[in-house]
Amino acid sequence: xxxxxxxxxxxxxxxxxxxxxxxxxxxxxxxxxxxxxxxxxxxxxxxxxxxxxxxxxxxxxxxxxxxxxxxxxxxxxxxxxxxxxxxxxxxxxxxxxxxxxxxxxxxxxxxxxxxxxxxxxxxxxxxxxxxxxxxxxxxxxxxxxxxxxxxxxxxxxxxxxxxxxxxxxxxxxxxxxxxxxxxxxxxxxxxxxxxxxxxxxxxxxxxxxxxxxxxxxxxxxxxxxxxxxxxxxxxxxxxxxxxxxxxxxxxxxxxxxxxxxxxxxxxxxxxxxxxxxxxxxxxxxxxxxxxxxxxxxxxxxxxxxxxxxxxxxxxxxxxxxxxxxxxxxxxxxxxxxxxxxxxxxxxxxxxxxxxxxxxxxxxxxxxxxxxxxxxxxxxxxxxxxxxxxxxxxxxxxxxxxxxxxxxxxxxxxxxxxxxxxxxxxx
Length: 426
Ligand SMILES: Cc1cc2nc3c(=O)[nH]c(=O)nc-3n(C[C@H](O)[C@H](O)[C@H](O)COP(=O)(O)OP(=O)(O)OC[C@H]3O[C@@H](n4cnc5c(N)ncnc54)[C@H](O)[C@@H]3O)c2cc1C
Hints:
Elements: E1 14-23, H1 27-38, E2 43-46, E3 67-68, H2 71-80, H3 91-105, E4 108-110, E5 114-121, E6 124-132, E7 135-146, H4 152-157, E8 161-163, E9 178-181, E10 199-200, E11 203-204, H5 205-212, E12 222-224, E13 231-233, H6 246-270, E14 278-282, E15 292-294, H7 302-306, E16 314-320, H8 338-341, E17 348-351, E18 363-365, H9 374-380, H10 383-402, H11 412-421
Parallel strand pairs: 1-2, 1-7, 2-4, 7-18
Antiparallel strand pairs: 3-16, 5-6, 6-7, 8-15, 9-13, 9-14, 10-11, 12-13, 16-17
The protein binds flavin-adenine dinucleotide (FAD).
Flavin-adenine dinucleotide binds near residues 26, 29 and 47.
GO molecular function, one term: oxidoreductase activity
Keywords: 4Fe-4S, Iron, Iron-sulfur, Metal-binding, Oxidoreductase
Protein name: FAD dependent oxidoreductase
C-alpha cells in the first residue's frame, strides 16, 4: 500500500499572464508558437529540456518522414536544410533554426521548465504550474496548447484518454537514436525501412540481426546524415514500457543504452562500410513513440487515412504516410502487414474536431496526443504532419482570443481562410 505525504498549501508567484501558452516545444509546439506569435498574439512556449525541437532535435532524428506539403513545415524544412536532400535533418542546425524562427516571430521561449500541474477554473484551463531552477511558479493564460507529446496538460485537466492498441493497451516500442562516426560512406549500406534488406555472406541482414542482436533489438535501420562519415541508427528497441511512468522510462533508457554496444559490434562485424564505426552521439532522451491519445469531438480512424478523406472541417491538409506500426512484441514491424497493405497515393486531412478535447475548455490538443486510433496515430505522428498541426492550432488559438470565442464555436470557414493565407490548402 502506498503511503501519502500531505503537501501543505503555499503561495506561488504568478510570473506571467500570456494570451497563448504552448507547453512543449517539439515539432507541434514549434508550429503552434510560431503561428500564434506571427498572428500578433502574446505567446510563451515552455519546454522541459534545454533545446527546442522535441524528438526532432533532442531525439537526434534522422529525417522528416512522410509527405506534407505547404504550411510552416515546408518553410522550416527549407531553412533547416543541410545537404542536397531536404528530408535529412541535422539536429544541431535545427535547434538554432527553430529558436531563431520563434524569436523572429516574437514568441517568448522558456527552456528548462517542466509543466507540473494545471490551474482550473471550473472546466476551463486558466493557467499552469511549472517547476524549474526558479522554483514552483504559475503562468496564467487565455488558452493552452498541449504540445507535450504525452498530453500531460490534458491528462491533469481531466480529459479522458486511451493508450495503445485496443486488445491489450500495448504501445509502440521506444528507441534511443544514436549516430555512428567513421563510416566509409562510399561502401556503406543504408536501410530506410524494415523491409529493406541485403544478402550478406552470413545471410539476410534483417534475419541475421534478429539472430545476433539482444532481443527485443533485432532490426537494421541506418540512414545517411548530412555530416561526413556519419550515419544515424534507429536500432535500439524496448517493448512493454509506458512513457508516462518515470521508472519505466529509466528502465527503457538503460536497456537501450546497453544495446548500443552490441549493435556497434554487429555492424562492425557484418556490414560493409561500418568496419571501424564508433558511437559519436546518442539522444539524451529516449524516443517515445506512443502514449496517451485523448478523447475529442472526433477520433481520426485508420480508414480516414486509408481512404484519404477530405473532411469539411479540415485544418491539416496534404498529409500522407503509411501505417508505421512498429512491433509491440519485438523487433521490426507489426505482423498485421499494415505497411505492405497501404496503397493510398492521395493525401488525407485532419479535422478540427480531433484537437478539441472532451470535457475541458481553454485547451487544444496538438501533435501526437490528438484524438485518433492506435493505427491512425502510427501515420499522423510523424514530424512534418505534427508541425502543421501546430500551425493549425496557432491559428485557432489566435482567432479564439481575437474574437473572444471558444475554439469549438469558431467559424471553420474563417479558420480555413486564414490557413489558406498561410499556404495551407486542400
Ligand atoms: C525513435 C523515434 C523515431 C522516429 N522517427 C521519425 C522519423 O524518422 N521521421 C519523422 O518524421 N518522425 C519520426 N518519429 C515520430 C516523431 O518524432 C514524433 O511523433 C513527433 O516528434 C511528435 O511531435 P510532438 O511535437 O507531438 O512531440 P515531441 O516531439 O515528443 O515533443 C514534445 C515536447 O514536449 C516537451 N515536454 C513533454 N512533457 C513536458 C512537460 N511536462 N513540461 C515541459 N515540456 C514537456 C518534450 O521535452 C518535447 O520537447 C520518430 C519517433 C521516435 C520516438
